[in-house]
């Protein structure tokens, strides 16, 4: 993890997490933090209400880079698999409900289906969109890991990214991408048209 520009490659850091509802209807949810011992931590949060929330994570009292962040908690639904973007090993890990790893999708690299710092992902149906941050693109894959399409390349022009930070797909199937280094939001259709 990184806090205030300092990398923590080992465990033993005081990590705290909480999820705060943006409305006054729900209570702040403290996170259960598990120190893995190698610089990674597992944080479990169980929100009590659906709607907009703010995620706060601190390490030794300092906010983690890119946190706090806003997220929407969806109403309860049945989830079979949990997908996690792993920046350190450049892959997507898939876990079952018992937190047992089932498989790994992708590996480090620049080719289709490979990642260089996958940052976040968005799943819609049986398709996932992965922010492949240091490859400056969004990759579209099946939840089984089959590459389908990529969007963008490095640059500041139309449909280009410079370290994209997030992606969602709206009700019209458009990709909405935040481009961190250029402080902008880019909207693309499924053909990649800006």
Verbal overview:
By secondary structure, this protein is mainly β. It is 0% helix and 47% strand. It has no helices and 19 strands. It has strands at residues 2-3, 6-7, 15-21, 29-30, 32-35, 41-44, 51-59, 62-63, 69-73, 82-86, 91-95, 101-105, 118-124, 127-132, 137-142, 147-151, 164-169, 175-179, 184-188. Strands 3, 4, 7, 8 and 9 form a 5-stranded antiparallel beta sheet that branches. The chain has a 4-stranded antiparallel beta sheet with strand order 13-14-15-16, with no helix packed on it. The chain has a 3-stranded antiparallel beta sheet with strand order 10-11-12, with no helix packed on it. It is globular, with a radius of gyration of 17 Å. The relative contact order is 0.10.
Condensed summary:
With 194 residues, the protein is an all-beta fold.
List keywords for this structure.
mainly beta; globular; five-stranded antiparallel sheet; four-stranded antiparallel sheet; 194 residues
Proportion of residues in extended strands: over 45%
Shape: globular
Low-confidence segments, ≥5 residues, pLDDT <50?
Answer: 1-5
Number of helices: 0
Q: List the quaternary state of the chains.
A: single chain
Helix and strand arrangement:
Layout: E1 2-3, E2 6-7, E3 15-21, E4 29-30, E5 32-35, E6 41-44, E7 51-59, E8 62-63, E9 69-73, E10 82-86, E11 91-95, E12 101-105, E13 118-124, E14 127-132, E15 137-142, E16 147-151, E17 164-169, E18 175-179, E19 184-188
Antiparallel strand pairs: 1-2, 3-4, 3-7, 5-6, 7-8, 7-9, 10-11, 11-12, 13-14, 14-15, 15-16, 17-18, 18-19
